[in-house]
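Sample 3 of the quickstart, ligand 4-nitrophenyl phosphate:
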Amino acid sequence: MKPPSFLFVCLGNICRSPLAEAAMREAAARAGIEVEVDSAGTGDWHVGFPPDPRSQAVAARHGIDISEYRARHVRGQDFRHYDQILALDPQNLRDLRAIAPSDGTAELTLLMDHVPGRAGYGVRDPYYGDESDFDAVWGDVVLAAEALVKRLG
Ligand code: 4NP
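Result:
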């Protein structure tokens, strides 16, 4: 049987969604649950690039190496392949809805809608921020990943 599959999507796929991907891999591994996980961007400026050094640093502070991740653009087949596509912020969700093919089967939701008390909130774009903004992203995506894994258990 195909494991449950999750695609995390932000704008550039270099700051937030790679951290969501890493947090989900970690939470699922800790729970001993097999999942398929990837991340992508609604924009294509950074395709092929590794995560932002500040995202790599916050992951490393939590013992996770994301240096091999490479940014990619979200594609039509993602909407048929993944069970769930999780948008990091409301604009990402609007952009995903605008490009979703009519035969898409993936459930499209806002990531923080899965965290009690955080429904409707986006994970703030840290691109023009500093280390503390990346720490905040990590805190958000860990909460969401734990909530998603809990539902699988
Ligand atoms: P991300 O962050 O969507 O979390 O990967 C951004 C990365 C790049 C840009 C904006 C946000 N940019 O404008 O290039």
